[in-house]
């Protein structure tokens, strides 16, 4: 099944939105496969956001993502990457519809509460950056037949 990396960024942890964000992904029907609170250091932040290294917002992004702990998670579903991105909303909360996490809780693009991998290839890279294989658990849920055909 497809996996994706989700981060509750430092703003989401500081604002007490970890439970709310997890609840929304659980209610959508995605399955939690990995979860931990962690302090991102500069080396990990640079690897995670390597594609943005030349952007003007990169220094601020590094400062922000390392400023306070994040909650890192692996979520599973068929099409998990796209489903999670839809549930998170647009990168800029100002463009995110109500009903999405960023649209309901965010204002600024640099304080958008969450990260979700942008493709299955990115997801594989990012899951491996944040998790060791033994930290990801595959298991059956008895209700799966009521969520997917
Ligand atoms: P994504 O998180 O929706 O995938 P990306 O374009 O990959 O968006 O950007 C990574 C993160 O960098 C965003 O989530 C946001 O926190 C930050 N970011 C992106 N563009 C800007 C910007 O123009 N100003 C400030 N921060 C930005
Ligand atoms: Mg991205």
Radius of gyration: 15 Å
Provide the low-confidence segments as ranges.
Answer: none
Distance between the termini: 14 Å
CATH superfamily: Nucleoside diphosphate kinase-like domain
Q: Which hetero ligands occur in this complex?
A: inosine-5'-diphosphate, magnesium ion
Total tally of structural domains: 1
Can you describe this structure in just a few lines?
This protein is α+β, with helices and mostly antiparallel strands.
Question: Could you please describe the fold and organization of this structure?
Answer:
The chain has 149 residues and is α+β, with helices and mostly antiparallel strands. It has a single domain, classed as Alpha-Beta Plaits (2-Layer Sandwich). Helices cover 38% and strands 16% of the residues. It has seven helices and four strands; from the N terminus they run βααβααβααβα. The chain has a four-stranded antiparallel β-sheet with strand order 2-3-1-4. The longest helix has 11 residues, at 18-28. The two termini are 14 Å apart. The relative contact order is 0.24. Bound molecules: inosine-5'-diphosphate (IDP) and magnesium ion. Inosine-5'-diphosphate binds at residues 52, 57, 61, 91, 109-110, 112, 115, 118.
